């Protein structure tokens, strides 16, 4: 009987993508995936170090795994990802029962390291300061088996050259490194031949893609056009761009390439110029809003989402009011809102003397959420009565009798599947009449469906639990 593995992910889409890469390698090594922790022979925790409680969450999970290991001595435990890259030796010292610790630069080494640890009968630590080769640098870009064969993530770059005061990413993922242009287009062409209809281009700062290749200008606009022109690809998304690098040619490519979705995630972080300067973001609130206006003018029906940090060190009441003003003017479709947490190794970690009191942060966070949800509700209600093209993802998690899917703007839609002959299997495109708009989703009724192209890929569902 094959051994089974369980992967739990903490953090961003890049981490999720890396987890699927790890899972693919373990499948290739003869293991079988499971979503039941109690039946797993191998457990991999793929970590994040962005939030203050990231290590607390990790060690909480490790405490449970230690108890599980005492009952099942043969269980292997591996910890990878950003926190492992940053604190590998300390992690192993604190949790010596962990078999393998590996970093962000050797994601593709999980399977062989687990074998080596078993053979050696001891724990292994491998967190190189930089990738040993291009293959290691772009391990997260290698082919990934997934449970959505009609959609795929494509890593176009790794690392980051920015120096945002709150961010640890440059320290754990290194400087920007772009994959070759032709290699990316060829990969998307292969995905399209295999039945993929939607690709999401991933990078820490996608709109600076290619600057390290040309040594002068980014190639992201060219990449959007090239990927959007691939036969069979009907939707192209990307995340995340940096406002200071959102260039006119990128906006033009979004507007002029039919496959590129009407969706833009543009992290604001703060609406105060003083706080933005302290964050080292490289733009002002006015410049940010100019970028938003340019994108909306060029791309009709654009959905705009963002990230906002509340309580950055030194943030005053006036600074926060500026943030509320910008958020209200931008009119987001949704936002990821975060409470600032100092991370060792970042510039902001030395600003702890300026921390905003917790009760003040909580009150600001609630006010920000109300402003975001007000604009989201307004935008979603405006869609009621219209017909949306929805790419079907499968049954709703909360109500299996309903299907869920995404519009071109990335909005979640719930609707009844209709009769079996309606052709609403995952990967199909459905036309759905919107009957309800809430702050976070839409509800609708099926109008018609277009059967999906047959996939030439073998579908292997790999459960990857979220942290």
Question: What does this protein structure show overall?
Answer:
- The chain is α/β, with parallel strands linked by helices and 467 residues long.
- It has four domains: 4-130, Rossmann fold (3-Layer(aba) Sandwich), CATH 3.40.50.12160; 146-261, Transcription Regulator spoIIAA, CATH 3.30.750; 264-382, Transcription Regulator spoIIAA (2-Layer Sandwich), CATH 3.30.750.200; 387-450, OB fold (Dihydrolipoamide Acetyltransferase, E2P) (Beta Barrel).
- It is built from 14 helices and 20 strands.
- It has helices at residues 13-28, 54-71, 82-94, 110-120, 134-137, 169-173, 181-193, 211-214, 220-228, 248-256, 273-279, 285-298, 317-330, 358-381, and strands spanning 4-9, 32-33, 42-47, 76-81, 100-102, 124-126, 151-155, 157-158, 177-178, 198-202, 235-239, 263-265, 303-310, 334-339, 387-395, 403-406, 412-415, 429-437, 442-450, 464-466.
- Strands 1, 2, 3, 4, 5, 6 and 20 form a seven-stranded parallel beta sheet that branches. It has a five-stranded mixed β-barrel with strand order 15-16-17-19-18. Strands 7-10-11 form a three-stranded parallel beta sheet, sandwiched between helices.
- The relative contact order is 0.10.
